[in-house]
Design brief:
By secondary structure, the chain is of the alpha+beta class. It has one domain. 39% of the residues lie in helices and 12% in strands. Strands 1-2 form a two-stranded antiparallel sheet. Helix 2 crosses helix 5. The longest helix is centred in the N-terminal third of the chain and has 14 residues. It is globular and about 50 Å long. The structure holds heme C. Heme C binds next to helix 3 and helix 4.
Length: 122
């Protein structure tokens, strides 16, 4: 269990005071960028602000594939979205702790990097 590991690390750290270890913030960010699979940032942007994944021209229209903004969702919406059955998004096998850390990372990035005018869809 992740939380168990943190408690262990805290204990280890208190014994060995000048040994630095990864903070919760660093862990959450690391998980977002490398969640045992393609990083969330590749499709949702560095801060979860939303991002154009790719685009192509069809006739006269530009078709964009968008990874939606995900740093403004409720915990419930977030967890629900991570269940399978998406159109484009890959399926992940994340533990509840990992989801909580990802959610924590995203809500703390909420104001950063907003580029799409229509990405604030709440
Ligand atoms: C390959 C691109 C891609 C990756 C990688 C990806 N997503 Fe997504 N995600 C999408 C797309 C596209 C959607 C919109 C639904 C769809 O079309 O699948 C989406 C939807 C979501 C939603 C729902 C948004 C809403 O408004 O309901 C959440 C939450 C989410 N992703 C979180 C994550 C997290 C967390 C990760 C990393 C563990 C991740 N995504 C990785 C492409 C991606």
């Amino acid at each position: 269990m992740r939380i168990g590991l943190f408690i262990l690390l805290l204990l280890v750290n208190s014994i060995n005071a000048d040994e630095s270890f990864i903070s919760n913030d660093e862990y959450a960010k690391m998980l977002y960028k490398n969640p045992r699979g393609i990083g969330c940032d590749k499709c949702h942007g560095e801060y979860g602000e939303g991002k154009e994944i790719s685009s192509y021209i069809s006739g006269k229209n530009k078709i964009s594939l968008i990874g939606p903004r995900i740093n403004n969702l409720s915990m419930r919406q977030f967890k629900k979205a991570l269940k399978k059955g998406k159109r484009l998004m890959p399926e992940y096998f994340l533990t509840d702790e990992e989801k909580a850390f990802l959610y924590y990372y995203l809500i703390t990035q909420n104001k950063k990097g907003l580029k799409f005018a229509n990405s604030d869809k709440q």
